[in-house]
Each structure stands twice: as C-alpha cells, then as structure tokens.
Write a structure and sequence with these properties.
With about 325 residues, the protein is of the alpha/beta class. The chain contains 10 helices and 14 strands. The chain has a single domain, classed as Rossmann fold (3-Layer(aba) Sandwich), CATH 3.40.50. The protein has an 8-stranded mixed beta sheet with strand order 6-5-4-10-11-14-12-13. The chain has a 3-stranded antiparallel beta sheet with strand order 1-2-3. It has a 3-stranded mixed beta sheet with strand order 7-9-8. Strand 5, helix 6 and strand 6 form a beta-alpha-beta unit. Helix 1 packs antiparallel against helix 6.
C-alpha cells in the first residue's frame, strides 16, 4: 500500500473528468444499503428516496471530490432527521484521502473529526491489515468478516484482497459510520462488500448505544446487537474482531469460533474490559493455543505468545492455524 495523497495526506481537489466517476450499480447498492440500515435500526419512518434525501444518480457528475460533496450534503440531511447532534463533528468541507490498496487506487472520504484524526494522517503501521497480509492471513481468502467496521477503511482494503466473486461482511452499529462506509464503497465502486447494521454481542436485541459499556461513535441512538452465529451464513477464511471490549460477549456466545475459522485478528481491549468489571482472561483463555499460533502485534513487530503470557493494554492478537 502506498500513500499518494496530496496536501499533507488529504486531497482537496482532483482534475475533473468527463462523465460519471461512479457507476449506476454502485449507486443502487449505496441506496439499498442505507435504506436497509435506517429501516433495520428503526431510525426513520420514511425510507423512500425523498424521505432519505437521496440525490438522483444524474446529479453525481464531475470528479470524485464533487461526488463526495454532493453525497455528504444528503448524508447531513438524513442524520439531522435522526438527531441534529449526529453532524456536530462534521467537517465544514469534506475531503478525500487517496491511497493504493493492493495495486488499486482508492479514495477514503474524510467527513468528520473522527475520520480526520483516524485516517487523514495516520502512520502506515496504524493499518494492521498490512501486517495481516504480511502474515499470510488473507492468502486465497474468499470470505472475510470485518467485525467492528468503523468507517469502512478495513473493509475497503479487504475488498481488494478477495476476488470480485468473494464477499466482505462488515458489522457496524453506528449510523454515522455506516453512512461513511457506504459512501466509501460507492466512491470506489466496491460491489463485493456488505454492511451489516449491527454490533456483535451475546444476544439479538435492540438497545441504546449508552447501555452496558458500549462505545459507539457519534451521538446516542438506538442500535442493533446480534449473535455472530445467527449471521455467519458463509464459511469465513479470515475474521477481524475489533469491538472495544465486546470481544468478551462474542466469544462468550460463540466459544467455538476458532473451529469455524483459524485466521483471526482478535483485539483484546484490556482497559475497556477492566472498566466493565471483566477479567480479560475470560476472553484470552478461549483461544485454543494447542491448535493455533498466536502473535502479539505492536507496530508491525510480531511476538509469539502463549496461554501463560500477560496482556496489559489494547492488544492486537493475530491467530493463525498450526502447520
């Protein structure tokens, strides 16, 4: 992956091109994703084009920056209908981060303060998916589960790892992040990624984002939680789990996860678990160390660990099958 962005990591302008730079098929998937997300989360009553402020495809002309601005204007209107506070941290002018993933040029929308701080000027080694690839975890992958999708950057990368006939499922409970991820897929003509508008927990329920220690981006709104085994309809070749302490609930409800997939990026967020009164070893001990190799990744440096090792912080564990 190489960074080809302009102006210190963010591109604020690109040469205009004739015709649309986004496809009709990507636009249809974009609209469908948002209709289903708003409907499934019960955030609006009217999911028609007018009710969700969808801009007609013909209006998406000019370069990608203009497409971004047009889409963001409608995004603001949708989120304001849900809760005006949801757009409080939006940038006055959205921007694009231009990068290359697996020899494919991609464009990351920078829409709010969180996207700016996480993705605009992030060091390369902040992107753990590079270490996953180096470690061989995406080799020949056709189905990837991205649990804790945030703004879709990891799923965008994974979509360039699997073939066009493959699939990336990204799970995200925040409507702000769902909006931005869907926009990212639209801008990049990604057709093999599916956004599931839910977090993963130990039950199927609809709760407030402030309940039970949840850490959800943006202002408060009701969210969906789902058990992973209710939605894992395709056999995964790789799973990334980064859900701010809710890895405890995931492995509690699905302790046999590693029987379904042995290529797993598992984040164990010790501080979040401690804040909730949970011993991180309840999660750590569910890793079948007799069947898999486990490496602790810190800024790209991999250290082999075992069941007796101690974790103290936000720990990135890369789990691979023993050969």
């Amino acid at each position: 992956m190489t960074d080809t962005a302009l102006n210190g990591g963010i591109s604020s302008a690109h040469p205009a091109k004739s015709g649309a730079v986004v496809s009709v098929e990507a636009y249809r998937r974009y609209c469908h994703t948002l209709r289903m997300a708003y409907r499934a989360m019960g955030l609006v009553k009217d999911i028609t084009d007018a009710g969700l402020h969808f801009t007609p495809f013909a209006s998406f002309s000019g370069d990608r920056l203009q497409v971004l601005k047009t889409a963001t204007y409608a995004m603001r209107a949708r989120l304001t209908d849900v809760n005006p506070g949801l757009t409080a941290a939006f940038l006055e002018t959205p921007a694009l981060k231009e990068m290359t993933f697996n020899q494919r040029r991609v464009f990351i929308p920078i829409v709010n303060d969180e996207g700016l701080s996480w993705y605009a000027d992030s060091p390369m080694m902040n992107f753990d998916f590079l270490v996953e690839t180096f470690h061989g975890m995406h080799q020949n992958a056709r189905v990837i589960y991205d649990i804790g999708g945030h703004q879709g950057v990891w799923a965008l990368y994974y979509a360039t790892c699997v073939p066009s006939s493959g699939r990336v499922y990204t799970f995200e409970p925040s409507i702000i992040n769902i909006e931005i991820a869907a926009l990212s897929f639209f801008l990049n003509d990604i057709l093999n990624a599916v956004i599931v508008p839910a977090g993963i927990g130990d039950s199927n329920t609809h709760i407030q984002s402030t309940d039970d220690g949840l850490l959800i981006s943006g202002d408060s709104h009701d969210i969906n939680l789902m058990k992973l085994d209710w939605i894992m309809l395709e056999s995964p070749d790789f799973i990334k789990i980064d859900i701010e302490g809710y890895e405890h609930e995931l492995l509690k409800s699905m302790p046999d996860l590693f029987e379904f997939c042995q290529n797993v990026h598992l984040e164990i967020h010790v501080p979040h678990l401690v804040a909730r009164g949970i011993d991180y070893r309840e999660t750590f001990d569910k890793i079948p160390f007799d069947k898999v190799n486990v490496h602790h990744s810190v800024w790209g440096k991999l250290t082999r660990i075992g069941p007796d090792d101690v974790l103290t912080d936000f720990s990135t564990l890369l789990v691979t099958p023993r050969t």
